Amino acid sequence: MLKHLTLCFALVVTSTMAHAQSKLETIASMSIIGDFVRQIGGERVQVTTLVGAGGDTHTFQPAPQDARRMAQAKLVFINGLGLEGWLPRLVQSSGSKAKVVTVSTGVKAIREASDGHSHGHGHDLDPHAWQDVANAKLYARNIRDALSAADPEGASFYTARSEAYMAELDQLDREIKQGLAQIPPERRRVITSHDAFGYFAKAYGLSFVAPQGVSTEAEASSRDVARIIRQIRAEKIPAVFLENIADPRLMTQIARETDAKIGPRVYSDSLSDSSGPAPTYLDMMRHNLRAFSEALR
Predict the structure, then answer these.
(1) 209-215: which pairs have CB atoms within 8 A and are 24 or more residues apart?
(2) Which residue of 91, 94, 116, 201 lies most exposed, with the fewest beta carbons within 10 A?
């Protein structure tokens, strides 16, 4: 009897280990993309995120363990549009043979407005395409296709999960449009730390101004700050918002000098950890919607 139980236990452990080992090893460059991959991949996929919750992908510096993780992965999911400038060096140093999947493929990219000064990011494309839910659906499709190609046996599984997730994204899109429709047009102007909401503005009818450009790599100049202070006063912009990845001191200074209200912290380039208000993309977008709606009405 004891031998029989021991054998059964060994079979269960072996089966569990085999199942764990059979998961598709993937890397996501940042927390938002990691969430997309988990939503589509489910239990068939092991996801390692390089830039975790609260991290800034613009300024990320890979560590030696990141190269080791990269070497073990079969797929690497990146945003593209110039966001992960550090990635080519990481791939080269790791010797990775993983397929790199750019999840923003097909996005109609927004070009940064030419304002006569450099923001130091080394590219002129706005990489924050996920801020438009329509683009998030495109990300999900690209992830579904890449997972299905790498794991053909799971193709129907990935398709079913992507269809369910698309329905959730459609519902989210409706919620954002309905929620922002309640804000008077003359109050739909927002100040944020850096220019991360261009796609959101274009899709949903808000106007965003930021002292930094589309990247956080370069500090805002005194001229940028003075210009924004003048604009807030002239246009009576009602609120400024701190981003989760940004140093709050600059925005606090701007608010103090203009008497603009400091709204709730918003999430632009990174999710929160599991105890925060934005542990998933859906949570992040709903949190930001509430923050804008409450401060601007």
Answers:
(1) 209/237, 211/250, 211/254, 212/119, 213/112, 213/119, 213/120, 213/121, 214/112, 214/119, 214/121, 214/125, 214/126, 214/127, 214/128, 215/58, 215/119, 215/120, 215/121
(2) 116
